[in-house]
Design brief:
alpha/beta; single chain; 9 strands
């Protein structure tokens, strides 16, 4: 199936996705790499309210290249970061902040897939090397959080996007992971080859 949806994503939206579906997103998307995850979780553990509400939001594992144009920010490249960097952080992040979607490349671990099922969240795969294509979907950069503390690639950038995609549902909210399926097929094929040698 192919979907064209607006963020924030409701849990109803998330639960109808199946691994392999194609999605295009319009609305607000937030970048967050490992340092932003750590920083946000530290604030939450101290009982401090974040200036951003991640409830039902979509998080993009991305360290964009950004420049100032007059008084406005402009993202000129927004390629995905390897999501495995966030494997140890994502379950706590999902449980604490309840996002509905995560965009990245390379997939995430089986533990994260289980957490996605528990927290009704979905993983969207975007092709690596599409930094300029992805930035073309960004219509505005209304704000940035923790730029001074974390620097350009690790800050949380607020991005208004229009038809960001195609995004492939790599891990759905029912626990199905295309990455685990490909891994199982590969191991089975390897074992067959070894048996035939």
């Amino acid at each position: 199936m192919e979907y064209h949806l607006k963020t924030p994503l409701s849990k109803e939206d998330v639960l109808k996705f199946e691994a392999g579906d194609i999605v295009y997103l319009t609305g607000m998307v937030y970048t967050a790499r490992d340092e932003a995850h750590i920083h946000a979780l530290d604030h939450a553990r101290k009982g401090e309210k974040l200036p951003v509400d991640f409830e039902n939001s979509v998080i993009y594992h991305c360290g964009p290249i950004v420049r100032k144009k007059g008084s406005k920010w402009e993202i000129i490249a927004a390629g995905p970061t390897t999501s495995a960097r966030m494997n140890s952080l994502e379950p706590d992040f999902m449980k604490t902040f309840n996002p509905s979607g995560i965009i990245g490349k390379g997939g995430m671990s089986k533990d994260v897939a289980e957490s996605m099922k528990e927290n009704q969240c979905v993983y969207f795969a975007i092709t690596g090397g599409v930094a300029t294509l992805a930035s073309g979907a960004i219509t505005d950069v209304p704000d940035v959080l923790w730029y001074d503390e974390l620097g350009m690639p690790e800050a949380i950038w607020y991005m208004d996007v229009e038809e960001l995609g195609p995004l492939v549902v790599g891990i759905d909210a029912h626990g199905r992971s295309l990455y685990e399926e490909v891994k199982d097929i590969t191991i089975n094929n390897l074992n067959k080859i070894i048996d035939d040698i």
